[in-house]
Design a protein that fits this description.
2 domains, Aspartate Aminotransferase, domain 1, seven-stranded mixed β-sheet, alpha/beta, 362 residues, 33% helix, 9 helices, three-stranded antiparallel β-sheet, Aspartate Aminotransferase, domain 2
Length: 362
């Protein structure tokens, strides 16, 4: 895939597939001869109903979501789900949280408003802790399977021997790889990384976990209500769902390395990340501080050993058509997010720039 557009490494809202953006532009004023933009449609009308139905079906097919899981299209983002999950699942009791970075730390803090939260294990922001102190009577265990800021990723989901449901915040690697549903009770993620524009949140919840919401849970955020109304209890984020549906179709049609669909996406993500990490590891000028066994494929934080060059690096990168490489303000440095829509050519361009900048300033 080639493009004249710059390569956007933003952590989110993030780059979208160019074919999807072009289709959105072409359909903006008139969706399929309806005479309306998707943004003007009634969410109760047959036109949007067909969009929603197709998006749900394609997502279930891509991620092989079992029939006993509901797919909910909601609002509020990952931060919103940090409250909505305990409102639905905690029953006002115990919740165990594994803290591996910034987002899981926020999740634990928010859940304390509604439950007795224990930090069952806490990492150093560079690795996944191995000694988990789990309670058999916890309502669920929360993990963030990809830390967007810290660049720490679970490459295999834990299997909890005590039967407590596992809740995963998979916002920044949702749809980048398969999910082992046998190990998950609930998964959630904002769409603005791999799936679509900000404003849409996806929730996958096992049937037996419905119906336990606290009395204080707002009706529009009660998973049982949302599931019973097929994500239409209130007006859903219609435009976000429409764009997500186009992204699902794009993923289904993607071919790479002899693979197709989600398998092609995963292999391409593996190759992109390997290329960038290899360049960083071979350099004495840059460093990635995450343990090799849990480095994220999606979010690659790195640092210049001479941080006085940070501003020059960012300015020259922008001039070279490499955008949004500044690291999160809480950790500093740089960060390249390699979401599904980032082509291999974008990572090759970044690696070439890294080597050139080091040759001139190292």
């Amino acid at each position: 895939m080639t493009s004249s557009r710059p390569f956007n490494f933003s952590a989110g809202p993030a780059t979208l597939p160019e074919p999807v953006l072009r289709q959105v532009a072409a359909e903006m004023l008139d969706w399929h001869g309806s005479g309306m933009s998707v943004m003007e449609m009634s969410h109760r009308g047959k036109e949007f109903g067909s969009i929603l139905e197709a998006a749900q079906a394609d997502l279930r097919e891509l991620l092989v979501v079992p029939p006993h899981f509901h797919i909910l299209f909601m609002q509020g983002g990952g931060l919103g789900e940090n409250a909505i999950v305990p409102l639905n699942l905690s029953r006002g009791g115990k919740v165990d949280a594994v803290v591996t970075g910034s987002w899981s730390r926020k999740s634990a803090a928010e859940a304390r408003r509604y439950a007795d939260v224990q930090v069952a294990a806490e990492g150093d922001g560079r690795s996944i802790p191995t000694d988990w102190r789990l309670r058999d009577d916890a309502a669920y265990v929360h993990v963030c399977t990809n830390e967007t800021i810290d660049g720490v990723e679970f490459h295999e989901l834990p299997r909890l021997a005590n039967g407590v449901p596992l809740v995963i915040d998979c916002s920044s690697h949702l749809l980048s790889r398969p999910i082992d549903w046998d190990r998950v009770g609930l998964a959630f993620g904002g769409a603005q990384k791999n799936i679509g524009p900000a404003g849409l949140t996806l929730v996958f919840v096992r049937e037996d976990l419905l119906g336990h919401a606290l009395d204080i849970c707002p009706t529009a955020f009660n998973y049982a209500t949302v599931a019973a109304n097929h994500s239409m209890y209130n007006t859903p984020p219609t435009f976000g769902i429409y764009v997500a549906g186009l992204v699902f179709q794009w993923v289904k049609g993607l071919e790479y390395a002899g693979k197709r669909g989600l398998a092609a996406v995963e292999q391409r993500n593996i190759d992109k990340a390997a290329l960038l990490y290899a360049a960083l590891d071979a350099s004495g000028f840059y460093e990635n501080r995450v343990d090799a066994g849990c480095r994220s494929r999606m979010n690659v934080p790195f640092f210049l050993r001479d941080e006085s060059l940070n501003d020059r690096f960012l300015a020259e990168a922008k001039a070279a058509g490499l955008l949004q490489l500044k690291g999160h303000k809480s950790v500093g440095g740089m960060r390249a997010s390699l979401y599904n829509a980032m082509p291999l050519e974008g990572v090759q361009a970044l690696v070439g720039f890294l080597k050139d900048f080091e040759a001139r300033h190292g």
